[in-house]
Automatic annotation (TrEMBL):
Family: Belongs to the DegT/DnrJ/EryC1 family.
One GO BP annotation of this record: polysaccharide biosynthetic process
Protein name: dTDP-4-amino-4,6-dideoxygalactose transaminase
Keyword annotations: Pyridoxal phosphate
Pfam family, one: DegT_DnrJ_EryC1
Catalytic site: 205
Residue numbers bearing the N6-(pyridoxal phosphate)lysine modification: 205
Biological classification of the source: Bacteria, Pseudomonadati, Pseudomonadota, Alphaproteobacteria, Rhodobacterales
Source organism (scientific name): Rhodobacter maris
Domain of life: Bacteria
Region (Disordered): 1-22
Signal peptide range in chain numbering: none
GO molecular function, one term: transaminase activity
Length: 390
């Protein structure tokens, strides 16, 4: 086994501070063969051979047809492309977008940039997601032109339920599956018949290329439309067939993505090792930990019993020099940019946002460090006693 330094990783922080994320993407030498191909072809952009190869290889890896995968330059752009393609093809003119309050800000940003007014929904306590059946009788359903369900932290949601919702209501649905790629690589997940998924290849996700994204759909007509949206409206000619923008993945990003795919069996094993170490350490405590495969490998979450318990755990993490992150903040309505959005009552989102803490999670996080982290996560009772003493 190489030491982190010999493996080319930056040396560990000598103060012993543990960062929340420390992404690790393919090293330069693994990129060189792909970069040489770019030198030879002198194709740098516009769905070149490396982008083509990456899409084909990912499709194969996911057990999908080649035309079920479309690359783009971020997960946010994948959402935008899928939203616009759905709208173009459905002809639906509803201006309201329903989305969960508990998500990363990009979900709302993507909908707003496509011209929708957003209305925030509460999540279900046991899935942290919006359930399709709960929406069928929403009082504002007649205004709704788009629903954006989110798979939080890559936790799988009811994909077929959303397909049925779409089939019964005719309302366009786009799934924010930004953190789901590792989960989708496991056999057994069946993509919905037509509704698209948007995936992120951001460096902090389990499979990354720096900045990048994918639109996945078994509906090839929908992906053709998304292709146009991301290609200034062009498809096969220089005439814009739809209002588009440039969201394409470059050949350089595809080089990184291909190298990431080459090494992903190893990286995936590293994610698993970290998840198992967390789960093992967690079993010896009374705290609830969430790790892969329930969520994406790039996250390790602790679920506190209540807000007071969460505060006590955070204080101990801070004192121990361990970084943590509330990846979704306090939910969308807690961000100034989205504080004025209309919303349903959001008690569950607020409660979950206050109780879920993102712990350090990266491929070379040492088992000893995981032990140190979990040791800071006092059980609820101890936290209460500590609070009543001070
Ligand atoms: C990462 C993420 C995004 C955004 O993806 P980018 O590639 O950073 O644009 C959107 N939604 C969720 C839930 C995410 O986790």
């Amino acid at each position: 086994m190489l030491t982190p330094e010999a493996d080319g990783m930056p040396p560990r922080d000598p103060s012993g501070r543990i960062p929340v994320a420390r992404p690790s993407l393919p090293r330069a030498e693994t990129l060189v063969p792909y970069l040489r191909r770019i030198d030879e072809t002198r194709i740098y952009s516009n769905h070149g051979p490396l982008v083509d190869l990456f899409e084909a290889r990912i499709a194969e890896r996911l057990g999908l047809g080649k035309h079920a995968v479309l690359s783009c330059n971020s997960g946010t752009m994948a959402l935008v492309a899928a939203i616009r393609a759905e709208r173009n093809l459905s002809g639906h003119r509803g201006r309201l977008c329903l989305l969960p309050a508990y998500t990363f800000v990009a979900t709302a940003g993507a909908a707003q940039s496509c011209g929708y007014d957003c209305h925030l929904l509460d999540i279900a306590p046991d899935t942290w997601a919006v359930e399709p059946a709960a929406l069928r009788h929403h009082p504002r359903l007649s205004e709704v032109g788009l629903v954006l369900p989110v798979a939080p932290y890559g936790r799988m949601i009811d994909l077929q339920g959303w397909q049925e919702f779409h089939d019964k209501t005719g309302i366009p649905v786009v799934i924010d599956a930004a953190a789901c790629l590792d989960r989708l690589m496991h056999p057994g997940t069946v993509l919905p018949r037509s509704i698209p998924l948007a995936v992120s290849l951001h460096a902090t996700k389990s499979f990354g290329c720096g900045e990048g994204g994918l639109v996945l759909s078994r509906d090839t007509g929908l992906l053709r439309e998304a292709y146009k949206v991301l290609n200034n409206g062009f498809l096969g000619s220089r005439e814009a067939q739809t209002a588009g923008l440039n969201g394409k993945m470059s050949e350089y990003a595809a080089a990184v993505a291909l190298a990431e795919l080459d090494g992903f069996a190893r990286k995936s094993a590293q994610w698993t090792k970290v998840a198992v170490a967390y789960a093992d350490a967690g079993r010896e405590t009374e705290v609830t930990l969430w790790t892969a495969p329930q969520i994406s490998g790039c996250y390790a979450l602790v679920e506190a019993a209540n807000a007071g318990h969460a505060a006590a755990m955070k204080a101990r993490l801070v004192a121990a020099g361990i970084d943590f992150r509330n990846w979704y903040g306090g939910g969308l309505s807690a961000h100034p940019a989205y504080a004025r959005l209309s919303h349903d009552p959001l008690p569950v989102s607020a409660d979950v946002a206050a109780r879920i803490i993102g712990l350090p999670c990266f491929t070379d996080l040492a088992k000893a460090d995981i032990g140190r982290i979990v040791a800071c996560l006092s059980p609820p009772l101890a936290a209460q006693m500590q609070a009543s003493r001070s």
